Amino acid sequence: MRFRPAALLFAAALCLCWTPSQAQTPIRFGAGFDALLTPPSQDIVTEGLGVGGRFRMAFPLNADLSFAAGAGIFGYIFKGRDDASYLFNPQVSVIVTTTRGSANRYRYLMGGIGYFAALTAGTDAEGGPALHFGLGWATPLNDTSLYFEVDPALIIGEENTTFAVPVRVGVIF
């Protein structure tokens, strides 16, 4: 298991996203659930449907542009506990709010880099760096917002390149 690239990526994201001008703009936090669909691959831990959770911090630069750093953990648990496998996915992203849609719903585009790291012992799969580009919708409530995202990623393994399609739902507070 290699945690060093993922940890370095996450630490670099936090350093790059925080600037002294952020002091007047509140950091936004998000937490939610993920469903991750991956095809068969030798470099990624498993294929099929994984479920998990995600946490993200967004650093707004203005009303339209934010930088974000977050991480998710996915479990491929549908074959039972003994055959389950797990992935850790840190990401850094740029989020651009494109328009305000109907019924106070905001649409946004997001893209950036990440890493998929296998957390399962006894597997040869190691994961790899990833590029992601997705689309999301946020619906403001009183003090929080609900969000829904589809954020496909291209995962670059040692010998193969594959893709993953995460679907997310959660709360921004």
Describe this structure in words.
This protein has one helix spanning 4-17, and strands at residues 28-38, 48-60, 65-76, 85-100, 106-118, 127-140, 145-150, 153-156, 161-172. The chain is mostly beta strands and 173 residues long. Strands 1, 2, 3, 4, 5, 6, 7, 8 and 9 form a nine-stranded antiparallel beta sheet that branches. β8 and β9 (161-172) form a beta hairpin. It is elongated and about 45 Å long.
Outline the secondary-structure elements.
Layout lengths: L3 H14 L10 E11 L9 E13 L4 E12 L8 E16 L5 E13 L8 E14 L4 E6 L2 E4 L4 E12 L1
Antiparallel strand pairs: 1-2, 1-9, 2-3, 3-4, 4-5, 5-6, 6-7, 6-8, 7-9, 8-9
Rg (CA only): 16 Å
Binned, the helix content reads under 10%
Instruction: Give helix and strand order, one letter per element, not per position.
Output: HEEEEEEEEE
User: Quick check: average pLDDT?
Assistant: 84
Major β-sheet profile: 9 strands, antiparallel
Q: Please count the beta strands (DSSP E, at least 2 residues each).
A: 9
Bulk shape? elongated
How far apart lie the N and C ends? 33 Å
> Strand content of the residues, in percent?
over 45%
Secondary structure class reads: mainly beta
Poorly predicted spans = none
Number of continuous helical runs: 1
